[in-house]
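(Protein data)
===
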Amino acid sequence: EIARLASHGLMLDVANSGKHLFAVGDRGTVLVSNNSRDWAQVQTPVRSPLAGVAFANDAVGYAVGHDAVILKTTDGGKTWLLQNFQPELEKPFLDVIALDADNVIAVGGYGLMYRTTDGGATWNEADAPAVRGDELHLNAISKLGNGSLLVVGEQGTMGISLDGGNSWEKLTSPYDGSLYGAIAVGSSGALIYGLRGNVYRSDDVKAGHWTQVNVDTVSSFFGGAPLADGGVALVGLAGKVLKLEPSGAVVPVTVTSPRTDANGNTTDKEVTGSFAAAVAWAGRLVVVGEQGVQSVKIN
């Protein structure tokens, strides 16, 4: 359903296809923009909440969500086709990574992990007992600089694959609470983030040497994005946004949204709703969450 105020509704992920920005969220909503400020809704065949979106190139992308939904586009996001829908599983997909147009991995609640090697013609459960065996939520999957895959999730769940997802090894986490995402650092390192302001960095994920990053907050972080200047942006609870400078400095960022009063006067009001994800775009940070989509100058 096309909704006039879709860009102000609950949005859960955002991605850069190389040509456009795509945001996904509640009620099967997919939004597209070419400037990070103006958004148009694209029709989809589902009303299930969409929690993750990723593009292999500017034409081929995938979106995943509740009811084990998997959608695919091959025309740059103009149309989306349903590839998987299993409400009877009662498990949501929470994130997706497109290694290329044909090789894609989706992860989610209760150890859910599906793979395709043929562009979604067939999807199969991944053979990954090291990270799926405890049936904990797998919240995010990302690729490190050296091509290894890292999955993070509930109760400090962490796993690494050195062969494109064919096999997985469980890692020891520096934090026992939920982790919501990871951003590649260097060739084999990562920055991981999660509940209550817990942020850790390692230059070698597999070796397991982690250092806690002092971000001076107990707000949980649900999303993050690498920045062009080598820094990292983290977004989370109650409008919290931090920029971690390459120097190590931590800089708070205020996100505002224009509001028009009854007299027609427009002012910028701070966004206090929680953010779920972010992506860098042309010197700006595009954030999505409880109050839709916002864009803020970041560098």
About this structure: The mean pLDDT is 95.
